[in-house]
Amino acid sequence: MTASSSAITVVQRGHESYETTFAAMRAYTDARTPETQNQLWIVEHPPVYTLGLGADRTHILNPHNVPVVQTDRGGEVTYHGPGQVVIYLLIDLRRYKPNGRFFIRELVQRIEQAVIDTLAAYNLHGERKEGAPGIYMADGDWRGAKIAALGLKVRGNGCTYHGVSLNVAMDLTPFSWINPCGYEGLATIDMKTLGVEVALPDVQTALAQQLMNQLA
Q1: pLDDT digits over 48-85, tens only?
Q2: What is the number of H-type helices and E-type strands within the chain?
Q3: 49 phi and psi angles, rounded to 5 deg
Q4: Out of 70-84, 88-102, 142-156, which region has the weakest mean confidence (pLDDT)?
Q5: Which of 104, 144, 163, 173 has the least C-beta neighbours within 10 A?
């Protein structure tokens, strides 16, 4: 893996509708060549529910006025909204490892580790759950509550899009209007509720750096 092929550029897209970002991710991936940059896109979305390819719509209990968007990522229903760090990974997995590419399971583990390391920097302890991608609180009153979700699309050519979301300082109410990630009664939490007062851009930067560390 050469320095040029492994380089990752961070793109700050600011506040943007989910539909706009989704279309841009697909267009970027469609147009990729062997020389196209690997990128991390940082974005903050207005309220939206997104559905994975195999998602069961009955897990949307009552969307109220929140839009529902069908996507082509894996996973079930999740919620994106203000106060949440969302980072999309537009990377060519073939550039990793001398004789191949990351296995998808390894990529998911690396993304999860980036979240765990980001939380640890704020003295929060996250953990994985077998068979349930994402990061959950490992201790305290909110043990087992989900704080980060992830879902990916991997094209047949090894190029990825979609990514990971981390709850920082949100209105968590919309999570109660769905079965998050398909799990009835799953509690969700954010860093602010756990006592961490931090600006969203700081966590965006921290998580992007941890992702780059994991993909170096």
Answers
A1: 999 999 899 999 999 999 999 999 999 999 999 999 99
A2: 4, 10
A3: -100, 135
A4: 88-102
A5: 173
Spot the catalytic one: 91, 169, 181, 191.
Answer: 181
Check if CATH label 3.30.2350.10 holds for domain 3-215.
no
Using the predicted structure, report yes or no on whether residue 4 has a pLDDT greater than 80. no
Strand locations in the chain (E)? 8-15, 38-44, 48-51, 68-70, 78-80, 84-90, 126-129, 132-137, 146-154, 160-167
Neighbours of 195 (CB within 10 A): 10
Q: What CA–CA distance (Å, rounded) separates 177 from 114?
A: 28
Reduced to 3 states (helix: H, G, I; strand: E, B; else coil), residue 160 is: strand
Domain ranges of the chain: 3-215
pTM above 0.85, yes or no: yes
Of 19, 23, 21, nearest to 41 by C-alpha is 21
CA distance 147 to 204: 15
**Confidence band (pLDDT; 50, 70, 90) for 101?**
low
